[in-house]
Amino acid sequence: MTKSEFLAQLKKALQNNLSSSAVQENMDYYDRYIIEETAKGKSEQEVVDMLGDPWILARTITDASDGTDWETVHETGSDRSTSSYGERSREQNRSGMHMSGVSTWVRGILLVLFVVMVLMLIVSIVSGVVSFLAPVLVPILIVMFVIRLFGGRRS
């Protein structure tokens, strides 16, 4: 897919969900991004492939646009610099962009894994304590049961 095909598909995907100014802002951003990456030595095809499917990218942008500012949507970390456009560079990598689209799903899985790990830890601690104390507690409980069983009949 060429740059112009990618941008056309992205624009088509964004038009129904964002205002025309927001669509244009995103189009300008990705146009600049592709230009900057090709200037760094990557081919246009590599950059477009790195960005992924424009429809998925549009969904990510749309999902993030409801109350999230541009910097958060396009945040990649600490490697931001001033661009020739007089504003902070909003460079993206593939994982940074797609991560925001699945972050809720990933967080859910991580939460479930964390809960399972905590439960396994609790079970292993309890079973360890029981297996450590069982050789001592079982005879004591048997003796107490026998004393109670026969001790109650003396009256």
Question: What report would you give on this structure?
Answer:
There is one protein chain. The protein has 155 residues and is mainly α. The protein has 2 domains: 3-92; 103-155. 74% of the residues lie in helices and 0% in strands. It has 6 helices and no strands. It has helices at 3-15, 20-39, 44-51, 54-64, 70-73, 94-151. The longest helix is centred in the last third of the chain and has 58 residues, at 94-151. Mean pLDDT is 78; it is low at 76-101.
Give the topology string: H per helix, E per strand.
Answer: HHHHHH
Task: Give the number of DSSP strands.
Answer: 0
Share of residues in helices = over 70%
The helix count comes to 6
How would you sum up the major sheet?
none
Instruction: List low-confidence stretches.
Output: 76-101
> Which structural category do the helix and sheet elements fall into?
mainly alpha
Query: What is the radius of gyration computed over CA atoms, rounded to a whole number of angstroms?
Result: 30 Å
Q: Look at the structure and give the mean pLDDT.
A: 78
* Tertiary shape: rod-shaped
Region (Disordered): 68-95
Organism: Schaedlerella arabinosiphila
Transmembrane segments: 104-126, 132-151
Keywords: Membrane, Transmembrane, Transmembrane helix
